[in-house]
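Researcher: Structure prediction, please.
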Amino acid sequence: MLPSFDLKCPPTLDEALEILAAEPQVQPIAGGTNLLVDMRGGKLAPPTLVEVGGLHELCCIHERDGILEIGGAVTIAELLDDPMIERHAPILQEMGRSFANALIRNRATIGGNLVNAAPCSDTAPALLVLDAQVELRSLIGTRRIPLDEFLVGAFETKRQGNELLTCVRIPIPTPSAKTAFEKMGLRKISCMAKVDVAVRIDVDDVGVVTGARVAVGAVAPAALRALEAEEALKGQLLTAEAAVPASQGLTGEQRFGKGIEEAVRLVGEAVEPRPGSEYKRQVVRGITRRLLASLAEGGEST
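Model: Predicted structure follows.
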């Protein structure tokens, strides 16, 4: 049962920020898919909720000066249907297709998912490989923070109580960028991630990796990038000729060569699974190897 609370529905963003500044214990609500669960479970009992899901400034997706801007109240379902997301950040659509179920996708927002900062957040790894920033706004002003700095730990971020996450900003990737995402859960539908892996590579004309991003979720207090693995991928040849399909029964080293297999090993070393979940190291390695194979062979992983 929900505890009692006051609900305020300001018509403008400025008025919402005024409420957040005046009432220290107020909680913003958009989709409410995490907040209302926590309130029913007794984890939270805010005296006031301020509805921000309908604020126009938070519900738009724009392309501006080489940056893709996604409003904090944009839902996961809206990511799946947006042509700019399809063109510039298809990994967000890969992520969205495995996000919970249709009912939750229609309510859950990208900003709410990031602010909740659950270790199993699906959005965080996909956004990390896109070099995303979050924009936080208060009556005092606006600040932008790289996502990997914004996520501090389990259910902990750098957002202050008087701030709203108004926007996620993504530098539009180069045409050579390739991305892939895979989630492992216990069920096909409505499962929380046991492991999330997102990969992005930029390659030159002959298939040599010039830049790499590898991010993992549900394997540490916060989603993280495997920086050493990214460095190991740079300079490696990632083409169909360099990656033999797994169906031929070869080992990872035989399929990719030592440099890329070293990157796969380092991804496993980067994670911090809880006691009893050490198996996730091997799962992360296997998924990363599979995603790299998919990108090398020109396909898209789902």
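Model: The chain has a mean pLDDT of 91.
Researcher: Thanks, that helps.
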